[in-house]
């Protein structure tokens, strides 16, 4: 009667020791090595292999295998696949007599498998995350108590591996969050620190990305005492990729502008440089130009960008302008001709937006649209430009009825006072 009690005590001591060793490491590879060593020691075997389950490919693959490299196969095949599918411990007394056994690994490694015990690694919530397979029992045969011990070991392992996977995912997410915060801060630093002060004009810019980083930007640059360069741009998509593209676009237009004042030349050179760098499914819509405060004249180029609107204070009408060329990054040597100059009268407002405003949809799918935009500008025309942008944003939010912002929002308003 004493032997069984001794076996139970020994098995409990083994499990306690395994649990202690599992708690000492917080790296997945080291944890798996610990489990592999513990499995061989606890069950008295020559070799052990841990297969993790790949949900994307429905495969089992080895992270740790004594004496072999990585092994990958369908999760529906073999003894390991059956253990994962049936969630049961499988003991094979004679490997070469079992049709499920694949001898190819033995042939590749020169090892001879006699017997094996295979058990699924199951988390407390019932998820199968892998399989532990131990080979060649040192005292020749697996006993029923080995199956019981293996089942307990599998439960401990499932908890430990899942814990470590969650910790690793959290660490990756934290690093990504950190990197995105840095990218966001850099991108925000590229935006103007304050709205420009130009005599006789009220000018404001504003940006609200849909994610931590966005694919929109705006820019102001004082050329001389009475001339102000402006730009608004929108790269396809939103997030870190478009944020990199939009930063490149801004830098290119600034750099090319140092060598030329001709808007069409700047657009052409910037477009060709972007065509060299951007993949086929990426492009940027850009509107940039020059305000001459002395003559109240606006010259601009629109490479596929809109909406562009002009509110006429004298008549109360709102005029809409089309693009003067293709978006940048689509076709080398594409031309974007300057638009007809705009002469601003007192109270006139030149409105440059990205399409995130007009294309924000409420839950029933209806878009905010340009008609509502025009009406709001007409009604709120007497507000300072910064307030008018904020009023527009609040109106879009009310219209959207709590639907998520799916696109970046950027605006420039130029008003002659």
What does this structure look like?
This protein is elongated. It contains nine helices and 16 strands. It has a six-stranded antiparallel sheet, sandwiched between helices. It has a five-stranded antiparallel sheet with strand order 7-16-15-12-13. The chain is 39% helix and 25% strand. It folds into two domains: 2-164, Beta-Lactamase (2-Layer Sandwich), CATH 3.30.450.40; 192-416, PPM-type phosphatase domain (Phosphatase 2c, domain 1, 4-Layer Sandwich). The termini are far apart. Helix 2 (28-43) packs antiparallel against helix 5 and helix 6 (240-259) packs across helix 7. The model has no long low-confidence stretch (mean pLDDT 84). With 417 residues, the protein is an alpha+beta fold.
Number of strands: 16
Shape call? elongated
Return Rg in Å.
33 Å
Strand order of the largest sheet: 3-2-1-6-5-4
As residue ranges, the low-confidence spans are none
| Count of distinct structural domains | 2
**CATH uppermost class of the largest domain:** Alpha Beta
The N- to C-terminal Cα distance equals 101 Å
């Amino acid at each position: 009667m004493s032997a069984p009690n001794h076996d139970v005590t020994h098995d409990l001591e083994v499990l306690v020791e395994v649990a202690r060793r599992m708690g000492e490491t917080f790296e997945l590879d080291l944890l798996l090595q610990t489990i592999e060593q513990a499995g061989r020691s606890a069950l008295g075997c020559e070799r052990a292999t841990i297969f993790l389950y790949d949900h994307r490919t429905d495969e089992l693959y080895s992270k740790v295998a004594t004496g072999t490299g990585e092994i990958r196969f369908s999760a529906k095949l073999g003894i390991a696949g059956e253990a994962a599918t049936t969630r049961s411990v499988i003991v094979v007394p004679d490997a070469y007599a079992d049709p499920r056994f694949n001898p190819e690994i033995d042939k590749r490694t020169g090892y001879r498998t006699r017997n094996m015990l295979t058990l699924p690694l199951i988390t407390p919530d019932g998820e199968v995350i892998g399989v532990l397979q131990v080979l060649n029992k040192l005292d020749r045969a697996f006993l029923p108590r080995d199956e019981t011990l293996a089942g307990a070991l599998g439960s401990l392992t499932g908890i430990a591996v899942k814990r470590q996977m969650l910790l690793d995912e959290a660490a990756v997410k934290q690093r990504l969050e950190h990197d995105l915060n840095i990218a966001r801060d850099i991108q925000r630093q590229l935006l103007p620190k304050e709205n420009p002060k130009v005599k006789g004009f009220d000018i404001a810019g504003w940006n609200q990305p849909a994610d931590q980083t966005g694919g929109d930007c705006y820019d102001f640059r004082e050329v001389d005492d009475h001339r102000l360069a402006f730009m608004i741009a929108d790269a396809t998509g939103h997030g870190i990729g478009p944020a990199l593209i939009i930063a490149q676009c801004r830098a290119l237009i600034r750099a090319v502008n140092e060598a030329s004042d001709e808007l069409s030349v700047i657009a052409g050179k910037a477009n060709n440089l972007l065509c060299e760098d951007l993949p086929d499914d990426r492009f940027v819509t850009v509107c940039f130009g020059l305000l001459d405060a002395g003559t109240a004249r606006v010259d601009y180029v629109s490479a596929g960008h809109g909406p562009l609107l002009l509110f006429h204070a004298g008549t109360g009408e709102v005029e809409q302008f089309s693009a003067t060329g293709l978006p940048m990054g689509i076709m080398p040597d594409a031309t974007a001709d300057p638009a007809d100059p705009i002469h601003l009268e007192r109270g006139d407002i030149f409105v440059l937006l990205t399409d995130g405003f007009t294309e924000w949809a409420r839950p029933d799918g209806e878009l905010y649209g340009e008609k509502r935009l025009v009406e709001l500008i007409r009604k709120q025309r007497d507000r300072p430009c910064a307030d008018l942008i904020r009023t527009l944003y609040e109106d879009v939010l009310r219209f959207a009825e709590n639907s998520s912002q799916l696109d970046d929002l950027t605006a420039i308003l130029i008003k002659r006072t």
